[in-house]
Amino acid sequence: MSFAVPTEHYLLLSAVLFCIGVAGVATKRNPIVVFMCIEIMLNAANLGFVALGRHFGDVGGQIYTMLIIAVAAGEVAIGLAIIVSLFRTRETIDLDEADLLKL
Amino acid sequence: MGAPTQAIRDLSGILPILVLWGVALVILLGAPLLRRGPGSRLAAPLGGAGALGALLVLLRGSSDGFGDTLFAGAALTDTLYSSGAFVLLLGGFLSVLVAQTYLRSRDLEKPEYYAIMLLSLSGALLMMQANDLIVLFLGLELMSFGLYVLAGFARTDAKSDEAALKYFLLGALASALMLYGIMLTYGVAASTELSNVQSAVARGALKEPMGIAAALLLVIGLCFKIAAVPFHQWSPDVYEGAPTSATAFLATTAKIGAIVAFLRVCDTIAGGYHTWLPAIRAIAILSMIVGNLIAIAQTNVKRMLAYSGVAHAGYLLVAVACMGFRLMGTKGTQASILAMTGAVFYLLAYALALIGAFGVLAYLSSRDKDAQTLNDLRGLASSQPAVGYAMVLFMLSLAGIPATAGFIGKWQVFYAVLTGGDVALAVTMALTSAMGVYYYLRVVWYIVFEESAAPKPSPTGHGVEARPRAMTGVGAAITICCIATIGLGILPAAISSFLTVVR
Amino acid sequence: MTAHLGTIAFVSLTALTILPAIMVVSTRNLVHAGFWMLPCLIGVAGFYALLEAHFFVVVQILIYIGAILVLIMFALMLTRDVMDPKERQTNAMGVWAGVICGLGLLASAHMLFRHPWVGVTSHPGDAHAQTVALGKALVTRYALPFEAASVLLLAALIAAIVIAKSMRPPAASVGCDGEVSGG
Fold this sequence. Notes:
The complex is a heterotrimer of chains A (about 100), B (about 500) and C (about 180).
Chain A: H1 7-27, H2 31-56, H3 60-90
Helix pairs in contact in A: 1-2, 2-3
Chain B: H1 3-13, H2 15-29, H3 31-34, H4 43-61, E1 68-70, E2 75-77, H5 79-105, H6 111-129, H7 133-151, H8 158-189, H9 194-202, H10 209-226, H11 234-241, H12 244-268, H13 273-296, H14 301-322, H15 329-364, H16 374-377, H17 380-383, H18 385-399, H19 405-419, H20 423-448, H21 473-490, H22 496-499
Chain C: H1 2-26, H2 30-50, H3 54-78, H4 94-114, H5 127-139, H6 143-164
């Protein structure tokens, strides 16, 4: 089996995913959806790491992906705990309404 | 096979981290006993012992084994790490003291608070010790996880919850940006180890678009953590919403960890300074100006300190910018070393003054009153002279008035950037510092010259009749901060053996 | 021939990943956004298969879909009544975000195709050999990050419990009902 698709195509794809994630973070109002967009960004980085690891013939890329998946799992646990807790005290999680603290 | 000795060397290099992890585990496992009854008095001392133990281990270890890489290049010990760690752990210890009193008086105390604090400290240590960008990232995340939770620790308080949410979302975004930067670095350098990154930069990696993108994403991620303009929007809300003891901790820990990591990263990529130096200089100048300007308008002391923190991030970025001069002749090299030492001293002075100031707010808070605004400080010098004048001292130190530690720190950074020959940064730093004096002195004015607010006879008020708390943790923290701020202001050489960064 | 197959797989996986990702960002219904994450994550798993990172195909499906996405859906449904799906779900930044992302994409295409790709591109071993190498690297060269990641997970677990545990007076919190969420 040959190395059919060149690495830069994977990286371009990863950049597309990353930009979609950034756009989502910038525009969405619901913190959970914002968080999903951040997960898309992390996935983009993961994909890049695996593609580059393969390109360099280095096991490091895969290790990084593994560590990042652990980080993402921890992040989701904390993030959703915070969101659920805020929901309990405020009964709203709209980012634009969560404005007790203003600039 | 020399494996066992290598393993021992590796482990002893990260001994402070191991101590923190160990004590955190002890607190977590003992949490049922520490939660109520007689055991509840032990949680804070255990937390303090963890930070202090790590500090002692660090000082003992500093006699041998310097400049080593550990764990096959994942981490290292050098003087930048050891001096940064000294400041960090001292700040951590003082924050435990503040938390002990504050959490108790606000009825928030839980043993997990201290365990999370220690884990967060260990993350910051890992970040400073990292010799590999991925280790730096893990340290950053470990630190941030703790800080998100501490910010939201007062869970019945909607402001605290919101602070946690804002901090979390923006922090997670910053992490994702930084991670993408690390991925691109990996693509450019085929490794994330700093020494390999350095040689890739020497080969001209920062002239390629991909290297430039990587460097900028890394800079953005770190600027988020130190709350530099334009990535500072989270900081006033988080500072205000978080419980005061958590604010003291997160303000100092995040800044110390991120600045030391920032110094190390920029030192590594100094070869490509033409790419990132303009960005850092612009961010530094913006932070100094914007932070100081907005701080003037604040009436809430916590928010004011947040914006002043933005300005301080700017001053510290001046030191980071000096890393870019390293390869510009002897003067430049000298400037970069001076800047490292100066930045660490600055961080120490900042941590002492900031924890002291938040300590005073914590001291004045009680079960149903959370001292936050200038009005809460009105006439403090006459009602509670000791605390009042301590607050005055901390404000003077933050403003950088001579004979305080803050002045020495600012002077060192200023001197370094002048040595590097960057007059624009030096002038901005001097002018904005002068601007900053105004709002610090306004606090002093409120404390010393304003009449005390109508004294409330109720015992829960913050008047003279509040219960004596001088002997509690926060009293000790304020005392230590006061002595150290004056002591270092007059005799900065006293501590230079711990804080001098050698290259 | 295999190169052809690889290209076809790449193109179809790209569609499988990118389109749902766009839907996540653009849909108004929050729960739909959560469901659109599923094909997106599966697509990424497919790319791992194409890159012969077999272990990560499994990890991606187990952790990202099995744990993370399920938790996200759980939180979405728990807080669903709060936000009216007919209401605007985006803020005024939409156009700007689109412009900036478009520019970012052009820049990244430029930077990727200008980059001199010198690489080894050695053929990775089979699934078994790769996983063995991965495991060995985790406990030797990458022992410190591995340990740090485990402490990180512990910290996240504790933190999530502390935050999400229902607030009650100490006397009543013996059998505390925490939403323990962990990955």
